[in-house]
Amino acid sequence: MPSEHEILAMERQALERWCKGDPLGFLEISAPDVVYVDPYSPKRLDGWPSLKSYYENFRGGVNGATGFGLIDPKVQEWSDTAILTFVFTYHGGRDDGKRWNCVEVYRRTPSGWRIMHTHWSIAQATLAS
Amino acid sequence: MPSEHEILAMERQALERWCKGDPLGFLEISAPDVVYVDPYSPKRLDGWPSLKSYYENFRGGVNGATGFGLIDPKVQEWSDTAILTFVFTYHGGRDDGKRWNCVEVYRRTPSGWRIMHTHWSIAQATLAS
Predict the structure, then answer these.
(1) Count of domains in chain B?
(2) What average pLDDT does the segment A101-116 reach?
(3) Is residue A128 included in any domain, yes or no?
(4) Whole-model pTM?
(5) Mind listing the pLDDT tens digit for each residue in A74-103?
(6) CATH code, A30
(7) In a domain, A127, yes or no
(8) What's the ipTM?
(9) Which of A29, A85, B64, B113 could disulfide-link to B106, CB 3.0 to 4.6 Å?
């Protein structure tokens, strides 16, 4: 079995911390000039300080979720770029079973892979529910 | 005034064709191994042939739209990668004024910039309406 791509392992670790109420996992692997898009933030977030302020809203956990699913991940990689696409779902809590599309664009830097772009969106199964 | 980034000009041209009912504009600038995510397709689309089949559903126009807005674009570029993030809205038709988040990841190839990843999602203003 091929080993898991490094960015997928990084994403899992950050999500594990996220679901325990610790947004620092994502902040530690995000680039200074990261760009972030989701359906709730009124505007695109440009840069690490903006993302940090936003993520602080999620410290302590998300609606009682106890875990998550990272479904059907795909990695595209070229040069020093890797894109991770997956479906995310919370286990437990108010959002149990709702599905999200998540895309992360990573850049390989001297310090390791860093997230340059995050785009979360609500997936069909959730829109229809 | 700085000139517009090449991928932004390409995106505008593809959107102009899209809004006239011609999805080929996007197909012509998408890579063979493009990945596509939106809130309506039940699954992620992997590869140009899958995207072509999907885009054929939009031939002839989208709900009577007569034009579009490409709002607040941002380009991140490094090596042979460029990410375009913007808010999209239709003018006219049934979806007039609804807002979308759109992110396109382009890769520079010997043939020019090509879309490696497209992610459309419904933006807050539309979710709330």
Answers:
(1) 1
(2) 97
(3) no
(4) 0.94
(5) 999 999 999 999 999 989 888 888 899 999
(6) 3.10.450.50
(7) no
(8) 0.93
(9) B113
